[in-house]
Amino acid sequence: MFHSNTYLSEKKYNWNGVLIEAVPRYKDILLDSEHNCFKLRDIAVYKEDDKKIEFCVNEIKGWSGIKSSLPGRENNKIIKVKTKTLTSILDEINAPKDIDLLSLDVEGIKGLDLEKYKVKMILVELNKDCSTEFHNEILKILSNYTILKKDVLDTFFILKH
Predict the structure, then answer these.
(1) What is the DSSP letter of 121?
(2) Which residues pair with 39 in a beta bridge?
(3) How many CA atoms lie within 13 A of 49 on its CB side?
(4) What residue segments make up the domains of the chain, in order of their start?
């Protein structure tokens, strides 16, 4: 299993979660595997529900994503996917209002109501491919959080007390 924080959390820490995959070649591997979590196929987490958006599919693991958030990826295969906000997904599965850890691609944070769901820690794929404007927008959304750790791919935020 690769690039799956949900899988790691389930197997190592016995946590429950939600696994969402839009990339056709990964969804069958990830969603039909030994995950005990709630699974969603063929959607992208986005700032709005029920939109059809362009999604870049790249052969390199971890390089796929919503086209509008990935400048310079014009050579990727483009597919259309339906969207859901993270808040809608959490509502649909009756998620608890207090969440210990949320791990997501950068696009998903815009569709999360942080007033409704109190998330203690958030791991966001906020990497060098994100524009400065997009990066600053995410920092504004997460203004009640402190950056705990940042590496080449991910930024780990913790809720301020």
Answers:
(1) E
(2) 19
(3) 9
(4) 5-159
3 state SS of 70: coil
* Rounded alpha-carbon distances, angstroms, from residue 45 to 19, 27, 81, 161: 11, 14, 10, 28
Find out whether 149 and 123 touch, Cβ atoms under 8 Å: no
Which tokens go with 97? 């209002």
If you average pLDDT over every residue of the chain, what do you get? 82
Closest by alpha carbon to 122, among 151, 96, 101? 101
pLDDT tens-digit map of 77-123: 889 999 999 999 999 989 999 999 888 876 778 889 999 999 999 99
Edge-first strand listing for the sheet containing 65-66: 43-45, 77-84, 52-57, 65-66
Q: Tell me, what DSSP letter sits at residue 155? A: E
Would you call 54 exposed, middle or buried from its count of C-beta atoms within 10 A (0-12, 13-18, 19+)? middle
Give how far the C-alpha of residue 159 lies from the chain's centroid of Cα atoms, to the nearest Å: 18
pLDDT at site 84: 93
The kind and range of the H/E element at 132 are helix 132-141
Which ranges of the chain have pLDDT less than 50? 1
